[in-house]
Amino acid sequence: MGPSKIPPLTYKVVAECSVSKARAGLMTLRHSEVNTPVFMPVGTQGTLKGILPDQLIELNCQILLGNTYHLGLRPGIETLKKAGGLHKFMGWPRAILTDSGGFQMVSLLQLAEIDEHGVNFRSPFDNSQCMLTPEHSIQIQNAIGADIMMQLDDVVKTTTTGPRVEEAMERTIRWVDRCIEAHARDDDQSLFPIVQGGLDVPLRQRCVSALMERQVRGFAVGGLSGGESKHDFWRTVDVCTGYLPKDKPRYLMGVGFAADLVVCVALGIDMFDCVFPTRTARFGCALVDSGQLNLKQPKYKMDMEPIDKDCECSTCKRYTRSYLHHIATNESVSCSLLSIHNLAYQLRLMRSMREAIQRDEFPQFVTDFMARHFEAEPVPAWIREALSAVNIQLPADPERTDDQKQSQAKTEKRRETATLAEDQVASS
């Protein structure tokens, strides 16, 4: 890189919470500026299901995510090169982040064999063999032209214990050096290493320490949201943000539930992605502060209110819950309408957190949000513990009757089931 050239990624912390580890920042990339904390919608195959790029721009989405493994298979490197990269290919003028394909080691494990050289996949489309090495992952991502690229990492299921966890962490460190060596477009694209180490605190610390020795512009935290307990989840995030440098962006991979986003911003994370908002839309569900509205339920048949009267998305401006109930899961347009709302909700949530941080009112924002989100049930213990660790103390829950306690137990069971199901399809 020439001395007078502007780096392809600059990051500036513009405000910090005086109580927690939350911060608001500005990340400047080749294709757009990105305000953090930010949620990145997932366009696995170079498209978001049911949403056009122009609609994303109308929602003021600044960055989205594509999947290296899937784009490498279809349309492939040569097509992407001829198109001039994914931005031109899909008609998206703003920033793109690509993951490396490493997650597919877990999600497609029955199709993959892993060794020091790389990952040998059997294509789910035509059964052909595909060797994804660190070098090949970077070659695909250079052809995609993403503003931010991920190293290929050795990913194991979060609940794995024993020597395989350390092996994967050490291999991830070795592979990042191969990725850096193979990276041919450092003037235009920034490569993030990925912190691994399972739920083992010393391994996470060792990994962060080793990765910080590399000349990189940001860091990702991987290997979570895979079925581990929420207590282990937040503690691992907290450990990583406690050791990562403050002057570079921190990306937590695969996290998208609203309460998780709020907690992890408090813990010091800047960037998130998840298929959840668009996936749950395909099942007829709309996101609101209190959780989800399952618009397939009969109670919405005569409900002439919008999903959220305070939401300014095109769906809420034009359509009622009754209409959306009428078409939910039966008409393909319902996926589009609910996806637009759900992404608008996620992006508005992130904007609200940024503004609260800039006003130095983030703890009050968190308190108010949790009161709305858990209006009908107690705040889960893990959330209280996570927030307490960064000096945010939530008020005590009101006393509840035995019936309410039984209802809460059922709700927590449903939440746990939904979380595990979401973890299993996070690459869809």
From TrEMBL:
InterPro entries: TGT, TGT-like_sf, tRNA_ribo_trans-like
Active site: 99 (proton acceptor), 273 (nucleophile)
UniProt KW keywords: Cytoplasm, Glycosyltransferase, Metal-binding, Transferase, tRNA processing, Zinc
GO cellular component, as recorded: cytosol
Residue positions binding substrate: 99-103, 153, 196, 223
Function in brief: Catalytic subunit of the queuine tRNA-ribosyltransferase (TGT) that catalyzes the base-exchange of a guanine (G) residue with queuine (Q) at position 34 (anticodon wobble position) in tRNAs with GU(N) anticodons (tRNA-Asp, -Asn, -His and -Tyr), resulting in the hypermodified nucleoside queuosine (7-(((4,5-cis-dihydroxy-2-cyclopenten-1-yl)amino)methyl)-7-deazaguanosine). Catalysis occurs through a double-displacement mechanism. The nucleophile active site attacks the C1' of nucleotide 34 to detach the guanine base from the RNA, forming a covalent enzyme-RNA intermediate.
UniProt-recorded name of the protein: Queuine tRNA-ribosyltransferase catalytic subunit 1
Gene: Dere\GG24778
